[in-house]
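Section 4.2 – Deliverable D4.2 (structural model, holo form)

The reporting period included a commitment to supply a predicted holo structure for the target in complex with coenzyme A. Inputs used:
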Amino acid sequence: MSENGIKPYVRLVKSSELDVLATIQRRAFIDDPECNYFGSVDQPLSDEVDSPGKQHLETFFRFLTKACLRCGARITVAVVPSSESAGEDSEEKICASTIWMPPNKRISLGSVWALVRSGVFATVKGWGLNGLIRVGVEYGEVSGRALKEAYATRGLKKQSPDSSWYLQLACTDPHEQGKGYMSLLCREAFAHAPSSIFTLEATTSHSRDRYTHFGFELFKEVRMGVNKVNKDGLPAKGKEAEGVPIYSMVKWE
Ligand SMILES: CC(C)(COP(=O)(O)OP(=O)(O)OC[C@H]1O[C@@H](n2cnc3c(N)ncnc32)[C@H](O)[C@@H]1OP(=O)(O)O)[C@@H](O)C(=O)NCCC(=O)NCCS
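Output (structure tokens):
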């Protein structure tokens, strides 16, 4: 229940809401180490200051969300009706969102048509080909390898992690964090697909701890950008260039 007594709830996103969603995603990930690495950011981005880096981040999220939808994603939002007009035609405020890829539906560089129609060229224009390779190839390899290992360790060698529900992206608008919106979204997802395996990568210790609370087990920490960037995803050399951590996690059925 929100402070004004209006109850938040979960529903599927509407196609008319994708731009609003991209802005929320950009705000939530403005200082995310992985995103800094993908975007070859050389100094921290800020929501307060307009910059090309900030715009490129939003462009990427708009592209990613559209491409995921075209590849079969189930995108849910946690919304609250606006306090002034809580009637039938009321505006709803999106507070948080999850992009779930159902079993055997994944976004990949092979989905060429879906990527082109979703705006991959705008992302390449902003982040360069290097950005696309980091997010589309390097990330996929690192995360896929860890999940395969997790399945093998569990004795599920013959089962592909692609048969799980995969959390491609989750975020809560920074002003709305800590109010239980991600809990609401995760519980709805678990109820939607009971007795399923859910997989994800957390990109910060903050989100890792919250996913643990939802029943995800940390399988292992892997790194991207070793010898190139520091733990915040910013350019570094020598000892500092330890790379950004990614936490591979599974919620077994
Ligand atoms: C990670 C993130 C999605 C969490 O969203 P949120 O809406 O603030 O989370 P919630 O308020 O629903 O809290 C989640 C749960 O964790 C619990 N929690 C809070 N602090 C915790 C901690 N230190 N350790 C473990 N659990 C904790 C809360 O009590 C809540 O559980 P409950 O509903 O059972 O009480 C949000 O911080 C975010 O968008 N971060 C930036 C983007 C990001 O990192 N996304 C995830 C990577 S893909």
